[in-house]
Amino acid sequence: MALFKAYDVRGIYPKELNEESAYNIGRAFADYTKAKEILIGRDMRLSSDTLFLALSKGITKQGANVVDIGIVSTPMCYFSSGYLRAMASIMITASHNPKDYNGFKFMRANAIPIGEMTGLKDIEMIYTSNKFKRITKNGNIRKRDIANEYAKHVLSFIEVKKIKPLNIVIDTANGMGSKEVSLVYSKLPCNVTKLYFELDGRFPNHPADPLKEENTIALQKNVLKQKADLGIAFDGDADRVFFIDENGENIPSYIITCLIAKEFLKLMLNQKIIYDIRSSRIVDETVRRLGGIAIMCRVGHTFMKEQLRMQDAVFGGELSGHFYFRENYYADSGIITSLKVMEILSKENKPFSELIRPLKIYYQSGEINSTVADKDTKIRLLAKKYSNGKISYLDGIRVDFGHWWFNVRPSNTEPLLRLNLEAKTKGLMKNKMEEVLKIIRE
Q1: DSSP category for residue 290
Q2: From the candidates 73, 81, 89, 95, which is the catalytic residue?
């Protein structure tokens, strides 16, 4: 299996990604970026320390210095990239993937991601050629603790004094969210019930992927047991976050996008808000109603960040639980999002379920995957079948009608088509979902 994906390097350790490949990737990255100093963070996975040493050895072999910021979340690495003005950075993580995986996320200055279309293929070419620049003097490694500056930064996104003593249950799935919460929430008057806070790369309690509802069952039960105001779930590297209301119900991420967009638009009209193509129509409607400018984007953090920078947008949200902030170097942050939600609940002084009820007016299918050999042909068939709708090819195909819409987009790495569909009524949603799936799968 190829190590280089659309957005990062990722593979099973040590079968696919190991010390040798990490060493050579470090050499290739140093040659490509020509940076004199490269910042590296790593998560708590069992292989992260070993891969850090090999990656650093490769980088210093090419004459570049390494700034070791230690065991951190991905958002902390993003912040460090911008705050320390690093010319290039790498985060060692496999995010929400199972314990056997690990990987590298690459960044330019100011936390700008390096993806398939913005340099990752060039790094791969240097790596596979095994031809590196000849350097006479190796670089060195120095450590840098960024924790205090980071805590001050994320707390600057809220009015701390307005946070009420909320009762919160937080599940960090033995991932990096525990370090973030321990660092930041100690400054707040909230009562926090902690679930699975021990850093453990084996993920002994459940997978670190709260997008799948089976991984939030313990959190939901504890929210009800503790009679909490809300529940918060972070993924493995804490760049994504999900929320549970006081009734133990999962809250779709598009609703969180609406709530936070509303806060920014209270401060200034005509602010630009970015949302991904899978998100509910309520996002566009809410932003426009509040005097903002809603801009649809392709799925994926590299595309979202590029669009936020291009549009100078104040905020962006994805259905997958990524939320982006202009003042956070346009990067995503689970902890900042959680703080903003707490601030909103404190100011509104309403139960979470009551606060979001006006936004729950559409019915969504969720993402449905179908194995398809010829993805392009299926997309052409869908375009022909629904030619009377408003068609966009921004990401796969999206077709909008008065009371429903759908998006079908191809996977970058697998023979899959992914369907997301939304309608005004549950019956219409189910009927149209079956109709579109029949075309995809027949």
Answers
A1: T
A2: 95
d(CA 218, CA 40): 33
**For the segment 164-213, what is each residue's pLDDT rounded down to a tens digit?**
999 999 999 999 999 999 999 999 999 999 999 999 999 999 999 999 99
Residue 21 a catalytic site member = no
pTM for the whole structure: 0.96
CB 325 within 8 A of CB 331: yes
Helices 177-184 and 334-348, interaxial angle, to 10°?
Answer: 50
Band (pLDDT 50/70/90 cuts) for residue 7 is confident
Q: Which amino acid is at 28?
A: A
Beta strands 397-400 and 390-392 are: antiparallel
DSSP reduced 3-state for 308: helix
Residue 425: helix, strand or coil by DSSP?
coil
pLDDT at 426: 98
Give 412's pLDDT tier (boundaries 50, 70, 90): confident
Whether 1 shows a pLDDT value over 80: the answer reads no
Helix (H) or strand (E) holding 347: helix 334-348
How far lies 412's CA from each of 6, 25, 299, 397, 415, in Å?
7, 22, 11, 15, 8
Rg (CA), the chain: 22
**Region for 90 from its dihedrals, namely left if φ exceeds 0, alpha if ψ lies in -120 to 50, beta otherwise:** beta
Asked if 27 and 59 touch (Cβ cutoff 8 Å), the reply is yes
Do the Cβ atoms of 202 and 46 come closer than 8 Å?
A: yes
- Burial group, residue 428, by CB count within 10 angstroms (0-12, 13-18, 19+): middle
Q: Is the pLDDT of residue 92 over 80?
A: yes
Backbone angles phi and psi of 167, in degrees to 5: -95, 115
